[in-house]
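Exercise 7b. Backbone tokens:
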């Protein structure tokens, strides 16, 4: 006799507008210019997406210098790139299409404006994440100070007016704690007019927060190098479901553990395709009697335009 289990399915989950747009840019560029088309860095942090685009003719490189045929287009990933990258492409006369998420581009513009106005700038984010490298690379080296936690706020010293920006895929709660600490230490610090953490990150975390307290286990489908997916696991744990884990490329569902549960939660990161969520559910359905309740906490209608080069 099969065990019965209920899956609380978070909505919204999965692809955000920036990821949808980035994938569409690769497909449209391949359609318009044929293959191969180069992509600098993983277009979005998901192995399944990357592998499917490779099959269509996308060639992934980490740097422009790896491109062997400069007559072919190159696409910059959704995470954004330092200023030196498009400059290098122009020098080599390589045609490029920029798939940077418009919400990341917003942070880039903010930092440039703040710099021009004479502010010292603090970036709240994770070291070595491509988005952080891209944002810091908008300005001369040393113009932006990166902080990752509250401890680092204590050691900050600034003489000029101070402003902060944030990575778009951070934990909403952790970031609030850091920003509160910054405001306490620097009461006149200037923040963005509209917060930098993107709508999709905020919505997905809110959905997980609502579901996680009712679950014995919580699963997030996403890649190990996906910041927003890792944050969803953290949010689930902090919201009361200690047994929360990331299901990444090649990792099997822990069915033996799941069989001991009555209720589990399920979500996916902003770069994870919905088919991976459905595959995970199908695996469980082979072994158990499953009922699914979709818990909707927001309706997303955001769509970003494609770059003019592809219209």
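Sequence design result:
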């Amino acid at each position: 006799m099969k065990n019965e289990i209920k899956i609380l399915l978070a909505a919204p989950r999965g692809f955000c507008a920036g990821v949808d747009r980035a994938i569409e840019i690769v497909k449209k560029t391949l359609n318009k210019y044929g293959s191969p088309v180069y992509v600098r860095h993983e277009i979005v942090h998901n192995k399944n997406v990357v592998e499917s685009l490779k099959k269509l003719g996308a060639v992934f490189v980490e740097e422009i210098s790896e491109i062997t045929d400069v007559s072919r287009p190159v696409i910059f990933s959704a995470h954004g790139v330092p200023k030196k990258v498009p400059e290098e492409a122009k020098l080599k006369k390589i045609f490029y299409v920029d798939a940077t998420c418009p919400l990341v581009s917003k942070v880039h513009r903010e930092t440039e404006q703040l710099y021009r106005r004479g502010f010292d700038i603090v970036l709240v984010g994770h070291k070595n994440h491509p988005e952080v490298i891209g944002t810091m690379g908008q300005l001369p080296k040393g113009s932006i100070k990166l902080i990752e936690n509250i401890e680092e706020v204590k050691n900050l010293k600034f003489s000029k007016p101070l402003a902060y920006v944030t990575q778009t895929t951070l934990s909403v709660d952790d970031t609030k704690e850091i920003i509160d600490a910054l405001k306490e230490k620097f009461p006149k610090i200037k923040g963005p007019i509209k917060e930098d953490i993107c709508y999709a990150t905020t919505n997905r975390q809110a959905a997980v927060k609502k579901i996680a307290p009712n679950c014995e286990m919580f699963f997030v489908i996403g890649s190990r190098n996906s910041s927003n997916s890792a944050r969803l696991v953290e949010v689930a744990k902090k919201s009361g479901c200690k047994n929360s884990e990331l299901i990444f490329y090649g990792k099997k569902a822990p069915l033996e553990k799941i069989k001991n549960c009555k209720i589990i939660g399920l979500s996916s990161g902003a770069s994870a395709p919905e088919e991976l969520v459905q595959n995970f559910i199908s695996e469980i359905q082979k072994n158990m009697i499953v009922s699914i309740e979709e818990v909707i906490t927001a309706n997303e209608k955001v769509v970003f335009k494609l770059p003019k080069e592809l219209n």
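Instructor comment: The CA atoms of residues 17 and 222 lie 17 Å apart. The mean pLDDT is 96.
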